[in-house]
Amino acid sequence: MPTETPMRVLVVDDEDADRMCACRAVRSISDTIEVRCVGTVLDATDAVARWAPDVVLLDWRLGEGGESLDLLRILRQESPAAEVVVVTGMQSAAMVDAAVDAGAVDVVPKGTWDGDTTLHLRAVLRRVGRRRAFARTVAERLAEIQTFRRRSSAPTEAQT
Fold first, then answer.
1. How many domains does the chain have?
2. CA-CA 20 to 30 A from 60: which of 34, 85, 109, 149?
3. How far lies 98's CA from each of 4, 20, 92, 101, in Å?
């Protein structure tokens, strides 16, 4: 049985202190998580293209405004397998709706990274991990079915 590949999490936040806290929090959740941290839209798109993260933890107020929503839409198009989780200190119904409508799988409120925010993120990453495991199982079963079909449709010596 193949060894499970570590979950890759990309943290995108333009505030150095928030980015470092988020990165530490993600690392504290599990030692099977690889974390990369960037502070700009350009660095984020580059990291997604080169590194293919499973999860992107995206600060909602990136840059001068609107950049997070634009980046979220780009991520959904360029890397549809990556699950985007928005982190925000300014939650509202309209903001949550905009994030989810643009493709975010969850919205995590910023708070104390050693408290509720990390616990919420832990739950999100566990759900992502379960979906990854399920997708791998489905892919393995489909490969087995295809192998079985090829073998059963191949002519045997008695048929030739």
1. 1
2. 34
3. 34, 26, 10, 5
